[in-house]
Amino acid sequence: MAIARLSRQAKRPYGFCAKMTAVAILGLCFVFVWSLFSSSSSSVAARRESFDEMAEPVSGNSRVSNFSTKSSNKEVRNHDKKVKSESSSEKDEKKANGSVSKSVNEHKSEKKSPKVVPNKRKGKEKKKLPEKGTEGDDKAAESEEKEEYDSEKEIEDGDKEGLVVDGKEEALDRDGEASEDAEGEGGLVEIVDQENEGTLESEDGESRKGGQKRKKIKGPLFDPKMHHSWKLCSTRSKHNYIPCIDYETSSWRAQSYRHTERICPRTPIMCLVPLPHDRYEVPLRWPESKEKIFYKNVAHPKLAAFIKKHSWVMESGDYLAFPQNQSEFKGGVLHYLESIEEMVPDIEWGKNIRVVLDMGCADSSFGASLFNKEVLTLSVGLKDDLVDLAQVSLERGFPTIVSPFGNRRLPFPSGVFDTIHCGGCTINWHSNGGKHLLEINRILRPGGYFILSTKHDNIEDEEAMNTLTSSICWNILAHKTDDVSEVSVKIYQKPESNEIYQSRRRRYPPLCKEDENPDAAWYVAMKTCLHTIPSSIEQRGTEWPEEWPKRLETLPDWLDDKDKLAADTKHWTAIVEKSYLTGMGIAWSNIRNVMDMKAIYGGFAAALAKQNVWVMNVVPVHAPDTLPIIFDRGLVGTYHDWCESFSTYPRSYDLLHADHLFSRLKNRCKQPVSIVVEMDRILRPGGWAIIRDKVEILDPLEGILKSLQWDIRMTFAKDKEGIICAQKTKWRP
């Protein structure tokens, strides 16, 4: 009011003094406001300096945060955003993801070029895991296990391995910027929206909500005082519910109940998937399950109509029967495989060809027949149909994973499959800039084979395919239309060197940038570019692996830490032979589908190689990226974040193995109990779970398993480490 009065007086002829007074007052006000903001800024800087003196231990699976970090013997976590956060150096640090090693490749987001920052970790004192139950301990095995357990922890806690990085989380780190895979997919933006609304917890105990961070969660992973009550899920897909694949919307306009991309619910699933309506039957033992399965276990409305149109599967009483040598191809699948070997004699099934990817998961006869030839075929059930043939494949006991194939990469490293097969799959390889075929090129081993068989050749599609394969320098080894099977078969081979890329007249698609990681696959968009082929002997992929079965025990030349791989194999061989196979009461004749929920070098799967089982080796996101090593050994696996649901049907696995999984996820998942709920979803009634972890985690976990009415078959603890062996029942709330 005083200033306004002075202003009015200043308009008068005699108001010169009043004018000067007003100017002085306004100047003082400006100085006061400026000093107020200046003191606030200095207080922020002072507060930052005080936090910089604080430090906390770094977990074994910690990753470099998107916030600036300082390291001494312990890694320092900053608790407020720096005033100078817009400087170029800090922007580079935001993109850092871990260290680079020749032995283990680093996964990072493809959106920006990350800066490599040393990933310093503090080693922890190693303790021995018990391997025997209450029935008695084998002292020799225990001492051997202690030695190998130390080696295993060195694998996880060492600072040389790169980390598997979550592409979705990195996109959120960049101020909620959506990743490239949202292009053309309206539903994909939902992921970013959901995560921006919720709280995203990083592995090192930090959480971000609207740019703010929360201190590391303290206390036990599972609250021992928590009482758990369960209810059944009420979903459209009912007993076949796959949380990150199936839509759950009240809108009646949704014509399809499946996502075209992986989109998980906003909150973790805390309900139990019901059993099939007509009672669930324990699956038939292998190898009988190859020939027939219980129909009620995989019943689906569209499956009934599908059966009537195909001869390779038929309904026989309570069973679905699969006549021997029957397939989608006339003349049988054996004739089909023999014709491929005749076309390209270098393809020797079960020798130089061990790991095969079958796109589409049609009748499973291709993988079933190759299994008899010592070939491990992983089928990918593409969710562009509602027949649920992938579930049929899993019920029969064949390696299968469910995955959309739209805009994102498949969850595999680069250059790991010896052969990729597409038999009658309905994928338009040449559309969208050929990005789907370029994704196949990414995961195909240099010198590997792509087998494409079609029943009805379209001239325009064939010309477009020929143009695309020529542009990526694939060599057509053979092209034949078989009179018996009535299919046209083309066999392509991927180049083994980069020289041919430079000789292209029209260099499209272009070569990928050097800073784009070909192994980054989790929530990473497909690229319409060609990754260069490894050329140095120190790089993975320059040489073809040894023939099977020598391949399983051979240490790759490109691997630096060969001793760790040998120690991991010795460690799990001792445990499996002296404990798992004999000391837990598991009827291994009933076990076929096995999952290692936190695989390292595939030692657990290698120890089971002589059993009639196959193992899905899961390398968790943000763990050391050892999945390429697993594939090089002739085994199969995938990347996954256990804070989300796994891409498979309910009741898929007979045995789950979790070695120190929960302790590594303490500060990553919002609700760790949801991991137990997911285990209940993917494990079959009558299936087994072997869980090894710290006693402080296993004690409340045992209570959770009992609340799910699981039978605790064995518990054992020693030196703060323990093991639980439990069996799931048919109980549903």
Report on the structure:
- This protein is globular.
- The longest helix has 37 residues, at 16-52.
- The strands form 5 sheets. A 7-stranded mixed sheet has the order 11-10-9-12-13-15-14. Strands 18-17-16-19-20-22-21 form a 7-stranded mixed sheet.
- It is an alpha/beta fold and 733 residues long.
- It is 29% helix and 16% strand.
- The protein contains 21 helices and 22 strands.
- InterPro entries: Put_SAM_MeTrfase, SAM-dependent_MTases_sf.
- It is found in: Endomembrane system; Membrane.
Structural features:
22 strands; single chain; 21 helices; globular; seven-stranded mixed beta sheet; alpha/beta; 733 residues; Rossmann fold
Provide a short characterization of the protein structure.
This protein has 733 residues and is α/β, with parallel strands linked by helices. Among the domains are: 231-260 and 551-728, Vaccinia Virus protein VP39 (Rossmann fold, 3-Layer(aba) Sandwich), CATH 3.40.50.150; 288-533, Rossmann fold (3-Layer(aba) Sandwich), CATH 3.40.50.
